[in-house]
Amino acid sequence: MELSLARVDYLQVGVTAQKTMRLLPASGRKATQKVVVGDQDGVITCFGIKKGEAVPVFKTLPGQKIARLELGGALNTPQEKIFVATGSEVRGFTKRGKQFLSFETNLTESIKAMHISGADLFLCASYIYNHYCDCKDQHYYLSGDKINDVLCLPVHKVNCITPVLACQDRVLRVLQGSDLLYEVEVPGPPTVLALKNGNGGDSGEEIVYGTSDGKLGLTQITGTKPIPKCEVGNDKKRGGILCIDSFDIRGDGVKELLVGRDDGMLEIYNFQSADDLVLQYDHALPESITSIQGGCVGKDGYDEILVCTYSGWLTGLTTEPVHREGGSGEELKLSQEMQSKISSLRNELQHLQMKVLQEREKYQQSSQSSTAVSSVPAFNVNDKFTLNKDDASYSLILEVQTAIDNVLVQSDVPLDLLDVDKNSAVVSFSSCDSEPNSNFLLATYRCQANTTRLELKVRSIEGQYGTLQAYITPKIQPKTCQVHQYQIKPLSLHQKTHSIDHDRPMNTLMLKGQFSFAEIHSWVVFCLPEVPEKTPAGESITFYFQNTFLGTQLESTYRKGEGCFKSDNISTISILKDVLSKEATKRKINLNISYDINEESVRHTLKLIHPKLEYQQLLAKKVHLIDALRELQVHEGNVDFLLPKYRSILEEADQLLEEYKRQPAHLERLYGMITDLFIDKFKFKGTNVKSKVPLLLETLDGCDQDGLIAFFDAAA
Amino acid sequence: MLVPVFTLKLSHKILPRMVALGRYDGTHPCLAAATQAGKVFIHNPHARGQRTSTNRMVQSNQDSDISLLNINQAISCLASGVLNPQLGYDCLLVGTQTNLLAYDVYNNSDLFYREVSDGANAIVLGNLGDIPSPLAIIGGNCALQGFDYEGNDLFWTVTGDNVRSLALCDFDGDGKTELLVGSDDFDIRVFKQDEIVAEMSETETVTALNPMCGSRFGYALSNGTVGVYEKTNRYWRIKSKNQAISIHAFDLNSDGVSELITGWSNGKVDARNDRTGEVIFKDNFASSIAGVVEGDYRMDGSNQLICCSVDGEIRGYLPGGEEMKGNLMDTSAEQDMIRELSQKKQNLLLELRNYEESAKAELNTKKIDGQRGMIPANTQLQTALLVNLGSDNRSAHVELCISTTNDTIIRAVLIFAEGIFEGESHVVHPSPQNLSGCIRVPLTPAKDVPVDLHIKAFVGYRNSTQFHVFELTRQLPRFSMYALSSPDSSAEPLSFVNFTMNERPQRIIMWLNQSFLLPEDVEFQSVPFQVCFTSLRNAGQLCIKIKPGGEISINTDDIDLAGDIIQSMTSFLAIEDLQVEADFPAYFEELRKVLVKVDEHHAVNQRLTADMAEHSRLIRSMLLQAEDARCQGDMKIMKTHYIELYDLNRDLINQYKIRCNNHTELLNNLKAVNQAIQRAGQLRVGRPKAQVISACRDAIRSNNFHTLFRIMRVGAAPS
């Protein structure tokens, strides 16, 4: 059965955070459910739908922003008590809006994630996990990296409390009491956790996770070890996952998996076999989906999926058909309903416009006075700056609650700004003055009407570091702009991994000196992405990284007074050496740097790069031939006379072009990295080979692997 | 929702903008499109199995519906329509950089094949003004030419730059059509026969023009802008990051008014309301759109909108019927309306809250908190435009000075203006240590056009993360790149334009104050009156003198500038006709050299063509000899012949290269000649202008250079 869902917009509240909207269980005879949502103005809104109109049940007063909203209640009773996390406080409300709980936790940071199961309350701040039972402190755990979500396996099924933390460093941490039971490695930074089918499956141990790079997975958390069940990649390059729910929207007795992403994609998956997820349906909304749940809201008898978006829209995707067959009278009524809704909105708008005009005048007048100050209105910007593993580029996603007017992008390091297909904004590059204003990139994005979300892609060069700034101007009066900064780190293309291959030939960089553990940690944070800012617990720490573009690796181990960095790529070591010594000099710390260069590593890295190089060169050559071959095809009418080699190019022409388009400047980047490798190799030997670079580039065109290695060896 | 009524997938690529639909046999509509390798294909789904294989056309061996027409040259434009009303069916016109072919597809014969030295970048077919027979009008390098069905050249004129787009439209509503010409110099010119009646300045190369209802027409620019003009007023325009490949007028929602249909380079097709630009329908193709045409392709009595993509995908759409109520998109209009209104409400509420908070903040804090972006309420942004004569390391420029009135700083300035920056905007972003309350932006507009500068300045304090955005608009006068200088500071230019007009000198001074960037307004004292300027671009001198008796003389060596000044002045003073006397000795001398070169190039071309014919004869005989030798088994002789053949081939290639170079130079020179005629025209206004242009043409035709220069000087041929 083809699923057909119609979109209905119900209501708009303030800007919402992740997982802040839930449906209350149906009560009494009525089958429709009430919606409860908490926004960043601190307002909890509860409403039901009557005849297509949102009818409020209760609304609280504004306060601190609401980070999470969950439902709870005694086990085995309807879960209809509302709990919200604001700041470091947890509040409880009845379904009528009466506050029955105000629990001020002893957390120093504000709460980021919350889970409730009966009398057990699980709270997470950035790095801290706390378990309370009846508001009494039970257990505590300090995580190595930021915690994004928390979940507890259903107690009645597994018979013990098993909390699971989704941590930014690509692991799920399974706890027992205050101790770590084990870690589950997942393919990306997990952002959201949910129980399979809402109950953890038959065993109660199966959980679904979503990652910030758009991957989805199912894994079973047993008492001793994890059993990975399945993993869904992100081939379509969609946004990160923000919310997951299970609901039987098709009405076939099997629960589907509902997924909301930060690019506005809503997806429905089902479990084809026990552990195989298959995409069934998708729908694009214009902005991030922060919460999702299936239920019955708009009309009795029609199930729907309710989503809450970043700017606070509550939108339903209902199974109720928009145009029912026959009964034209009903349709007329429907449109009348709409008409009255529209006219009432129009009236309201007129009223508001008058008021705004008055206020605007007042504001203008205030600008005459010499003592008054004028402040700018604050607005929320939802931003995300992440490294894409596939094409080794960064994407910057900006989302504002109202339409964006323009965005100015400025950078003090050379960066390439790439085109993103789904962007409709008109980009314009401005000429840059690197001296004296150190601008290497100045570009404006003028957005089309009603754009609230903008995605940019930038490509960085390792070794060149600085700051990327985005000045965001939304279309609100009085006109204001906000600046957001993003660090481009020296080793910007590195990504953290769980393990590395220890058999590769490694170059080593050793640091010794009078520095503390916190100091060297801050230097590493400065150099490498994805390192938690907090100094790790313990005496020493080891991180593993992988270069997303070349596949080379880096191992960094450091403690107080000593640091050791190992990489098979000599350029990585060279960059680290330069940056670390510069940082140490800035703090007037005397560093003793020693390095051990492994000649074999250069050969190894070249062997790693060369197949990529060869592939790209061949691809470029093939793409170059396509047009000529096509012309021959038209001329001769068929391609039988061509060599199989050329015939296959014609057959694959579309894929080849697609691939070529997908990785612009790939070849140039490879050339650049090989050149860096060449220079760095000899830099460690103390020779400057810059003059030989043109010769190297000449060699690179159409040269085999051995030839290249020979050139590297001979150049000394 | 509107869905295609038919979809075809042709196995041929289609070149962008080269699609035409015609009834080449009088009844069946066929699609003609240019494809790779200098071919035109004709898709005829109505007459299967009729094989023709003579002359130019060959049946494609891949597809029985498709016949291919070999042009053997890169095709630059394509059109079809009725050229000879007696024939009763359409003919196909194919333009290349050197030739125009009018082709009778039905009889598979040429109507005419004309050499066009100015090339054919754009073509349009139809009746122009009072000329009785339909014309095929082609636009090339600065020239426009119209041919009737016998290939007679019935219309000729010049325009400012290379023509990129043409359209016929009843611009002034007199029942006769005028010619719209879009060119590389960003202008849309309207020709009433050979007289320019209107000129609209756009911001980029005009790549497409299309008539709509009445005197309305759509246009597209190379920077992704599309829009609609009603006469000289622009109704609306939108800009996209993609390029509009093809535009077409079609009534898709059956409301009796045509919508503007645009085919985009990213494969999108959209239909927009002609009055508001509101999108009423859109669809997506997998690849870029190549062309949008209309016709009754299904032969069922109603016209379909036909969109073609470069990959050969064709989709036809029938206009939406009564039951769709003009609602062609899949989402319900009411839902969208509610959403839009709610959004508006939310924005107003937000604004209201902003004012409330601002008022609250005012009460609570008397101290300024820069971090949160608080600034004194009476902060103002001041702008000034000045001429900066430059220094050793900076060339002369116009300077825009933006400053605040107190201790606040300007974090960055964004200037949105069209035509004077590389993109549509220019950004000044000082580094943290160079922040101040004053920013100077150098501007160097390349052309003398008035420009609106939309300035957005981010004002705050050094540590602010939020800034106030001050928005204001300044206009850069048309002749801002000329600095006032003292009259006797340098020798007066030899070239001049003299004319007389019955205008009070005060009005001319008004024009002067408005068009130039002067330190202070010039006051009129007495006749004779004189002002001098120095160009910031090349330090050239410009003098404007008003003598007793309304005689005005403009002295400058730059003929373009003189033309611009006359056009600007006459449009300000609303003068319709103006005859002038002009002399530009240096420029005329250059033109004389160009004309000599044109002759030389023609001669070289002829010689080379003769050589080529000789060579190809040689090749034929040599090939025969070589093959003979091969048949006789005499490999040694065969080898020598083939080696000779190889050498000859190399010679031919070399000669071809020479011919190519010769041709490009010829084209450039011809363009220069056309431009010269255009410039001579620009010095006059109205009727004298048209007279000068046609007289110059006659002089060039009769190869009478002496007369040509005389016409350029005094505006008429000696009688």
Strand content of chain B: 35-45%
- Give the overall pLDDT of chain B as a whole number: 83
The gross shape of chain A turns out to be: globular
Q: What is the rounded Rg of chain A?
A: 29 Å
Give the helix/strand class of chain B: alpha+beta
Give the low-pLDDT segments of chain B: none
Count of extended strands of chain B: 43
Q: How is the largest sheet of chain B built, in terms of strand order?
A: 38-40-41-42-39-43
Q: Record the strand order, biggest sheet of chain A.
A: 39-41-42-43-40-44
Oligomer: heterodimer
Main sheet summary of chain A:
6 strands, antiparallel
Low-confidence stretches of chain A: 324-331
Count of DSSP-assigned helices of chain B = 7
**Percent in helix of chain A:** 10-25%
Percent strand of chain A? 35-45%
Main sheet makeup of chain B = 6 strands, antiparallel
Structural class of chain A: alpha+beta
Protein name (chain A): Bardet-Biedl syndrome 7 protein homolog
Pfam families (chain A): BBS7_GAE, BBS7_hp, BBS7_pf, Beta-prop_BBS7
Keywords (chain A): Cell projection, Cilium, Cilium biogenesis/degradation, Cytoplasm, Cytoskeleton, Protein transport, Transport
InterPro entries (chain A): Bardet-Biedl_syndrome_7_prot, BBS7_GAE_dom, BBS7_hairpin, BBS7_pf_dom, Beta-prop_BBS7, WD40_repeat_dom_sf
Please characterize this protein's 3D structure.
The complex is a heterodimer of chains A (716) and B (719). In chain A, the strands form ten sheets. A six-stranded antiparallel beta sheet of chain A has the order 39-41-42-43-40-44, with helices on one face. Chain A is globular and about 85 Å long. Chain A is built from eleven helices and 44 strands. Helix content of chain A is 24%, strand content 38%. Chain A is an alpha+beta fold. Chain B is 25% helix and 36% strand. Chain B contains seven helices and 43 strands. In chain B, strands 38-40-41-42-39-43 form a six-stranded antiparallel beta sheet. Chains A and B meet through strand 1, helix 2, strand 29, strand 32 and strand 34 of A and helix 1, strand 30, strand 33, strand 34 and strand 37 of B.
